[in-house]
Design a protein that fits this description.
alpha+beta, Glutathione S-transferase Yfyf (Class Pi), Chain A, domain 2, binds glutathione
């Protein structure tokens, strides 16, 4: 039997990011694909330096799959998509469309939503990224109002990633994009997302219990 897929995340995080730590992307993909996996952890405390050999930016997630060790959630998703046609079609057109939208989620949408979100939560009242983000989200709204899925007329890992990028509460609450909202709702109603989300929440709740125990 081959070694199980290992999804690496932090052993604990404060309440704020729970439900959004990006190991959830990999858990969700593995759940969709029915790939067995285990979750492993690195300590939160010295996270910036304790795993630089595996994630050079001191972040999570990263994935190990036999001899493959891979960081960046997008790269991890594409690795899982290689293992399962549930996540990415095998025909060249469907595969190209899926990869294109995976990259678009990261490099055209998340590249502006994350800095916008960061400026917003740090109290920047005149967020100079708003115009840029609004433009990108409006363009995506047009796409999503015309189709159910981003690639290949069916669920792919591109939808999983795009929905995860878009489900951030402050981004969702900003502006009025009914097709995008319905899309996020549809994707996050999938049993695989719900399980991955619940498992991540349980993982950090268990960590709270461990921390509360007298040593
Ligand atoms: N581009 C990276 C971003 C990873 C990232 O932002 N990870 C966060 C958790 S979701 C993290 O490790 N934060 C802790 C830190 O930066 O100290 C990816 O997609 O994997």
């Amino acid at each position: 039997m081959s070694a199980p897929l290992l999804i690496w995340t932090l052993d604990w995080v404060p309440p704020g990011p729970r439900g959004f730590v990006r190991d959830l992307r990999l858990r969700w993909a593995a759940e969709e694909a029915g790939l067995p996996y285990e979750v492993r952890t690195i300590p939160f405390e010295d996270r910036e330096t304790n795993h630089l050999d595996r994630q050079p930016f001191g972040q999570v997630p990263y994935l190990t799959d036999g001899d493959v060790a891979i960081f960046e959630s997008g790269a991890g998703l594409l690795h899982l998509a290689r293992r399962s046609a549930t996540l990415m079609p095998r025909d060249p057109v469907g595969e190209a469309q899926t990869k294109q939208w995976v990259l678009a989620a990261l490099n055209s949408i998340e590249m502006v939503t994350v800095p916008w979100w960061y400026l917003t939560i740090t109290g920047e009242t005149n967020n100079g990224l708003t115009v840029w983000m609004d433009k990108r989200l409006a363009q995506l709204e047009r796409v999503l109002s015309e189709r159910e899925w981003l690639a290949a007329d069916r669920f792919t890992v591109a939808d999983l990633l795009m929905a995860d990028v878009l489900r951030v509460a402050k981004v969702r609450a900003h502006g009025d994009r009914p097709a995008t909202e319905a899309y996020v709702e549809r994707l996050t109603s999938r049993p695989a997302f719900r399980k991955a989300h619940a498992d991540q929440m349980a993982h950090f709740a268990d960590a709270d219990q461990m921390r509360a125990k007298p040593r």
